[in-house]
Amino acid sequence: MELISFRIHNYRSIIDTGWCELSSDNITGIIGQNESGKTSILEALYSFYTGTISEDIMRSDLSNPKVSCTFEIQPEIFEEVLKRKNLPEGILNFVRTSHSFTLTRLWDDNMENVLYLDGVEISGFYSRYEQNLRDVEAEMQKRIDEYLAKRDQIVDDAENAEKKLREEAKNLESANNLLSEAKKEFKLLKKTPNGKYAEEKLEEANKLFEETRRVCEIADQEFDIKRRKADEALYHARIVDESVKATKHFNYLQNKLEESFMALHEIQKVFDKTTKEKEKRSLQNEMEHLNKEYLKVSMEYKEAKKNAVIKKHIAYKFISGKSLALAEKEVMKEKPEVEKFFTKEEAGEILFDLIPEFIFFEDFSSLLPNRIDLEDIMRVDLQKEGLRAARNYLLISGLTPDFFTETSSRILKQKIEKLNKEVTLDFHDFWRQNIGKANKISINFELEHYDDSDPEKVGHPYLEFWIKDRFDRLYPKQRSRGVRWFLSFYLELKASSLSKDERGRVLLIDEPGLSLHARAQEDVLKVFEHIKDKMQIIYSTHSAHLIDIRKLHRLLAVQRAIENDESSETKVYNARSLAFASADTLTPVYTLIGSSLNEQQFIHKNNNVIIEDIATYYYLTVIRTLIGFNKEIYFLPASKISNISTMVNILLGWGLDFIVLTGNSSEGIKTHEALKNTLYLNDDKASQEHLVHLENFYTIEDLFSTLDFKKYILHKRIGIPESNSEYLEENNILRPVLASGFMDYVEENDLKFESFDEETRENFEHLFQMLDRGLR
Amino acid sequence: MATKKSRKPTLSEKSREDELFQSLQYASLIQAALLPPSKQIFRILPSHFLIYLPKDIVSGDFYWIFKKQEWIYFAAADCTGHGVPGALMSILGITFLNEILSSKSFLLPNRILNMLREKIMKALHQTDDHDHSKDGMDISLCAFNPQTRVLHFSGANNPLYYFRNHALHIIKGDRMPIGISGNEEKSFINHEIQMRENDILYIFSDGYADQFGGPHGKKLKVNRFRDLLIKYHSKPLNEQKEALLNELIDWMKNHEQVDDILVMGFKV
Fold first, then answer.
1. What is the DSSP letter of A699?
2. Which ranges of chain B have pLDDT less than 50?
3. Which residues of chain B have a CB within 8 Å of the CB of A719?
4. Looking at the structure, do residues A337 and A479 belong to the same domain, yes or no?
5. Range of A180's domain?
6. Which of A32, A99, A374, B6 could form a disulfide with A36 if both were Cys (CB 3.0 to 4.6 A apart)?
């Protein structure tokens, strides 16, 4: 899997780099002046990998740093690793067509980070999915709220009915008392003149009692009905209540988790600032305790989240009319979305395990030190100079901490001597293979102990490194920077190759050319060329010697938005937009072209052929040699067709002779017609020697037969019924990259002109015949 | 007890079979419409004969003819498989050949085959880096100029036979198909032949030679097919066709036809 492109937001001077594509031939150079932000790009990429940043990374506007990387992936692998759960609709299809995915790491104000699956399309799919989830969630909540409101109403009704029943019961009691009194009164008065009156009163009381009793009975019946209803509602609502309770618990744990995290974060800050050992130890204990607490709450939180979602789904199904058993069964079978679908973060974490390992090679930590304390190595103290190089050395030697516990100094010495020899031999092999020369130096490390001269450390072990040749035994820092750099770089490569990890590697190298002399810098480039099939290399430089003029497509130019203003933001230009970069930024490129002019005598009095672009230059340079074209001919690539006229004017101005070669694209035709008109007044005969137009071919690639194009340039067996140029355009393939690859292929495979088929040979022979007519 | 094989089809199965049969009949009409009509062939190549015997309702073999300026292009092709898959491939082949010839001026047959292969590979997504179909076709393709009598030939696994003064000459095609194969694609080779009056040439698919029959139920084989051509080549073209058909019927006797059969003969 390879890193294809990256984008960095809010990282030191960078606000937004835009998407920066890496060179497809695995070597990408970042050029720019000092303080332009080259190192920030490398550091940001490394931060993406490690997840760590420091406070000085944060911009003063407090916007959060974010680094996105896009990786190439085979869709089958993507599907395989993420098969455990679903992904929102559209994502798999997107990966099947794009063969890529993007991961983003975003840091918050506390410098904590989150990694997630990202990308414009993928975010779109997730947004739709999340919106859908929110809609479903809102609908469920609405139904649950309605249900609870209805239950409350039923319970209220029952309570009111009970109240009414109680009142009516009181009324009945009063009516009963009244009736009893009326009965007594009637008994006493029935034989008196007031007997009639008492009878009427009794009748009245009787009537009232009967009426009250009826009302009471009705109230009783009503209460009975409503009470049953309320009982039923309360019984059913317990399912919903459980859901509400689970949600409350989840919310509580969410707050608790945040509090726990903040407490841990605060103490970490105090710990980082503390220098006193005693305080550190005490804080460490506290931290461990808080960490345990955090982990515990975190587990509870996850469980509570899951429980809340499940309970809510069950409640929803239940209030939608399903029995509890069926609702539970269905939810367990369907699994709510939270379990069924990967979140962006979950998917991101899984995919992260597939991406290449990012290795940062920078001078302070990666260059071999003179000496380093053993305990600093074991403790991985990042503040110690040369730590990474020393660790690499120990890894290559196969040394574990147990090794240094050997008590017999004689055995220890013997072992160390043996290891030194092995590493030296291997380094010689590396040097010969990559640099192509012999190197007689040997590398040694020794285990020593501090003596009285350093009372604080007396008796403590340290490692001392030496680089020896036939004459001297010197500390690494006393050696030339070139030797020290290459040696350390060898240690880095060797150590990373020992990793059992099957993933690829992205090697980030900050200023490999810094203070190396020109030859050594060119050697660095040679090493890159040798290792580029095994790992991707991204390096920063401002040296012309670390740029290959044939491979300018590898460059990213970095500069400040306002030149020389170190507070302004960093801008990045890719190879296609180098023209927008400032002259200072492009100094190494200009130096290179300038030196080429001097050394190779780029432009001549006669026989200059202005061609459309650098890709055409690569192809024609190669074919010219293969075809054995002996006449003097100098190809001058315009950076694009529209620049041909300018070049023509310059050569005209200098009084130099030239031929212009154009293809049959609309721009090529336009340029050809314009030159024929302006220079030769449309006279075909006069112009034909100087204006060579390829009538049947859009670009130079079309001169190759499809078979040769596939075999020697594309290196793919695939059906290409369209023209080669159309294929390149449709598939968005960078022509210069392919063309420079073709140059390398011809050289490495000793290709002959006869290797091409008849069609290709005819086309190029014809082209050189046409050019020949205009040569002197 | 009746076995599954001997079971009579149910009504619904029968109606499905009928439907399928009707579809295939219709497909055969479409395929026939794509093949050049006999009137057109006679107008372009008056002295010719054609034996075209599909094994099924539709065929994986096809013939093709195209006139462009002074050149007559004609081909006999044999697509992978027979029946529906072969027929679909033949439609691709005819369409692509027409497309290639319509878009460019004069093209040598080998260039046409190169281009045809690219189109087939793209259409069938044939690449070297994942699983793909190995489908394709074998073909003999000629370009003939009646005025100069120059003939260009290129073949993908299939040859060109011609008789001159009763002597048989064989021009072998390249040993690679139109489509992806185990070996990397190379350019097809073009053969230029100066034809003479009364030369007779034949292009064909392997169906005739692969037909089982005879006294031992074996393949007719290429040698026997060659012998038949040697035996009949001097007869008038319509008699040659009749004789070759009679020989085939005699050979087959009770054997079923195993593949589509295509033979084209042409007299200069």
1. S
2. 1-6
3. 117-124, 126-127
4. no
5. 148-342
6. A32
